[in-house]
Amino acid sequence: MAVKKAKAIWKGTGKDGDGRLTSESGVLDNTAYSFKTRFENEKGTNPEELVAAAHAGCFAMALAFALQKAGLTPNSLEVDAAVSLDPDGGGFKVSKSALTLVADVPGVDQAAFDEIAKGAKEGCPISKLLNAEITLDATLKG
């Protein structure tokens, strides 16, 4: 079992305050986040961007393992994830993560590729974590 950790420190009100994120690995090191980085495109990160990065990375790795299991080796898997934050009653919720994949995988036909990609989308641990609609637009090069 793997346990990964991160820490958030927030100071001030929700709208006027700001926070810092630090991850166990040091990739995030006192990284700024705030209302403005979340809702007004100010420089810094936000929880949805971090979820998008996690989902894109998790899906790419899950697909690489699934392709390997099928005897296939990808030349490249390029994954974008777009996470939607929508109003929900008096608050917000992550409603969707839209995955877009461009894959270069020699020796696979479209039908087999689509089935493998679908399984990876459903089996990815971050997909399982999200209580949101997850879509996949997959393109096989060649």
Mean pLDDT: 97
CATH superfamily of the largest domain: K homology (KH) domain
Q: What characterizes the major β-sheet? A: 3 strands, antiparallel
Q: Strand tally, please?
A: 6
Number of helices: 4
Main β-sheet, spatial strand arrangement = 1-2-3
- Outline, from the CA principal axes? elongated
Q: Please tell me how large the radius of gyration is.
A: 17 Å
Question: Which features characterize this protein?
Answer:
142 residues, 2 domains, 3-stranded antiparallel β-sheet, 3-stranded mixed β-sheet
Question: How is this structure best summarized?
Answer:
This protein is α+β, with helices and mostly antiparallel strands and 142 residues long. It contains four helices and six strands, in the order βββααββααβ. It has two domains: 6-39, no CATH class; 47-140, K homology (KH) domain (GMP Synthetase, Chain A, domain 3).
Structure write-up:
- The termini are far apart.
- The strands form 2 sheets. The chain has a 3-stranded antiparallel sheet with strand order 1-2-3. It has a 3-stranded mixed sheet with strand order 4-5-6, covered by helices on one side.
- It has helices at residues 35-39, 47-69, 110-123, 125-129, and strands at 6-11, 18-23, 31-34, 76-88, 91-104, 133-140.
- Helix 2 packs across helix 3.
- With 142 residues, the protein is of the alpha+beta class.
- 33% of the residues lie in helices and 36% in strands.
- Strand 4 and strand 5 (91-104) form a beta hairpin.
- It has 2 domains: 6-39, no CATH class; 47-140, 2-Layer Sandwich (GMP Synthetase, Chain A, domain 3).
- The longest helix has 23 residues, at 47-69.
- The model has no long low-confidence stretch (mean pLDDT 97).
- It has 4 helices and 6 strands.
- One of its GO terms (molecular function) is peroxidase activity.
- This is Osmotically inducible protein OsmC.
- It comes from Enterovirga rhinocerotis.
